[in-house]
Amino acid sequence: MNFSSETVDFLVIGGGVAGLRAAIELAPRGSVLVLTKDKATESTTGYAQGGVAVALSDEDEVCIHYEDTVKAGDGLCNEEAVKVLVEEGPACILELMSWGADFDKEGSKLSFTIEAAHTRKRILHSHGDSTGKEIERVLIKKARSFPSVRRYDFAFTLDLITEDGRCIGATVLRGDSIINVFARAVILATGGAGQLYSRTTNPVISTGDGIAIAYRAGALIVDMEFIQFHPTTLYSPGAPQFLLSEAMRGEGAVLRNIHGQRFMHHYHEMSELASRDTVARAIVSEMVKTGARHVYLDLRHLDRDFVKKRFPQIYTTCLQYDIDITEDMIPVCPAAHYIMGGVSTDLAGETGIKGLFAAGEVACTGVHGANRLASNSLCWRGWSSAQGPAGVH
Ligand SMILES: Cc1cc2nc3c(=O)[nH]c(=O)nc-3n(C[C@H](O)[C@H](O)[C@H](O)COP(=O)(O)OP(=O)(O)OC[C@H]3O[C@@H](n4cnc5c(N)ncnc54)[C@H](O)[C@@H]3O)c2cc1C
């Protein structure tokens, strides 16, 4: 084992939407090192399908997006954080588009869809159901355009380095080397923890490392009881726990129990478009009642060509397991999807430890309350120059 050390201005741990956006914001203000524990493109961000919620359509308003978010959060959202999300979202999306993000359009206008617990069509999507890949592509390209940003892939962060109660860097395992990276500010952007569950939509990198690392350094961890289960993941022998986007129900797909009966209207007035927690619980109730390990998602009544064009990735993946989603009902069951809790931060991403910041799924500002509104996690602003890591000296 080799031991070495190096110094940068900003150390960003994680290369998903949160880490990349942080790196881009910090790049003009000093040297930035981005660490990922796998290859550059292996993040939850790249797997996001349905889209990104933003109040940009003619029928929508920022205050309605705010109300929907607070309602889905079950009265437990930090309302100041929700305001930041919904008010700054439109400018963030326009910025992403100016960097080259290609969201789907109808004619010359952006195409918006609806997902559970949204009362307006406000979800932008890309290449049908590959929104995360597009956002990741654009952010990786933008981050690479700054000479001040370097990255180490396959670099596993083991722990933070603290001195006198202040975070001054992190210890990283890279190949057969242990590197102490010292920095003015450290930004944790390590994503979620779905892999703690036997059924999850999350990729193998989502093992909650950032929460454990921050906890060991003495940071405050909050709201860990709030885990979101996605209602519909593929349940088929030999198939992966593949997510079937909520946008499918937004476009008219319905749920049926194993006897072929619709049931959501017994549980909520919004039926299939009730919030995720409600739909996931209703599915589990039906599974218990019928003694089955799944229910069905049914799109057979929708136009075949529309379904193939709107959900190309899902169509192709299901076909590999002998399920033609235009002709067959899809066996589905809930799986752990998103962690609302995490490392407690203020609205500038600052944790209780000087020099340590957190952003993205690892962080908890309280914006999602007890239940994240669908598609509310891919839109993230950077910091103004007065706030955040650049202000640390
Ligand atoms: C299948 C799926 C579909 C989704 N669809 C949507 C959607 O349509 N809309 C939406 O808003 N949200 C969606 N989400 C949620 C959303 O994708 C995530 O919340 C978001 O992408 C998290 O971004 P992040 O930057 O915080 O973390 P991630 O994108 O997960 O990135 C984490 C980064 O941290 C790195 N890392 C982790 N641990 C370490 C370590 N110890 N050392 C070094 N690096 C480390 C990883 O290598 C990775 O680069 C979906 C999630 C899943 C799983």
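^ flavin-adenine dinucleotide complex. The chain has a mean pLDDT of 96. Residues 227-336 form a domain with the Flavocytochrome C3; Chain A, domain 1 fold (CATH 3.90.700.10).
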